[in-house]
């Protein structure tokens, strides 16, 4: 056979393996769809739920944020459970939890019932938020790991868009009022949650079909099983080399006592603290205010209900499109440059939103009203904020959490980082109603400050992981636990 033919066969084989691992990554990322769907389905239902259960502003904030408590617990414990049961089994558990929650919330009869089942759904979402990036990073080749790991955020944005679109369609079917009855005598807001049954069933089926992570199998001493999985995702002539590299990384982590997230710095390893702070910054810029409260917010500043639904849906569509751009750029440009650009863009946009809201005047019923061009200005810069976030920090935080930790603590450390992300999400979500009723300009000024701080954090603490194998980064961390990297 000629050298050209050999190269062609090798390329075809590599293409086949790339297609397989891409399919695995897409299937695992469906957990991100559940994440996004659950995060935004409350947007269209919030006013109807508040009215039906006669909630105060604080009660409404807690009802919206209640799922996030479950998410934090699910994220924290799922990594440890996944290290015992495996990645795919835990994905299936997450699907079951979300299935139960979707049905039960749809039939909730009081506030306590509603909150309990939202907490159950949160456990499933928190679990999925950890397992998807961990699994993808462990099966993806280093050359395209950033791209495949970005599928998690892509799925989240698709889930957000699907939730807002389905909310809008269901509300439209109920004369633009989610409190009106729709099919079977159930109010439209209840159907908004029940629709979540469909993606949970899909995710459960896919979890049963996925092969287990080869790194998990190797860590469990199941070498033959790990080799079988690697044969599906890497060219045949590199299977043994890949397996040896994984085993060497696991042995090195064990010798260096990196099997635990615990360390001397405030009880955790330095790299775990970096992951936690990064995860908190991703939420403290206030991104989920856009996806949880935007419909209510735009109504409050003068837009009609139908316009507010449309604006929220457009924002989610922008979020989706920009995530595709992030996927295209992440393995070309690198993680750090994109995150620095995102921090800068978010800072400017949030400052402008704060300035716009500083011009508000009391409207009907005391609600703020933006005079003249300030309404469109706030809308434009809110969407520039979404663009800056979704092209950078949105997907890249999950990429970095999935790849920056040593093998033996990856799932556990990812769980800690994700739990911090969910707790930060909860804090932002539950405080926004009170802060916004006090002063919207002050509220967005706080988010702008965190966006500015995130720039300097990336500049000084975030390592560049582009083009490095997980095992290579394990060696680097052993030599220098915290490195700004370039």
Care to describe what's here?
- This protein is an all-alpha fold and 486 residues long.
- The chain has one domain (19-210, 260-479): Up-down Bundle (Growth Hormone, Chain: A), CATH 1.20.1250.20.
- It is 79% helix and 1% strand.
- It contains 19 helices and two strands.
- The chain has a two-stranded antiparallel sheet.
- It starts with a helix and ends in a 7-residue tail after the last helix.
- The relative contact order is 0.14.
- Residues 1-13 and 478-486 have low confidence and may be disordered.
H and E string: HHHHHHHHHHHHHHHEEHHHH
CATH architecture term: Up-down Bundle
Q: Classify the beta-strand content into a percent band.
A: under 5%
- The helicity comes to over 70%
Categorize the overall geometry.
globular
Give the class from helix and strand content and strand pairing.
Answer: mainly alpha
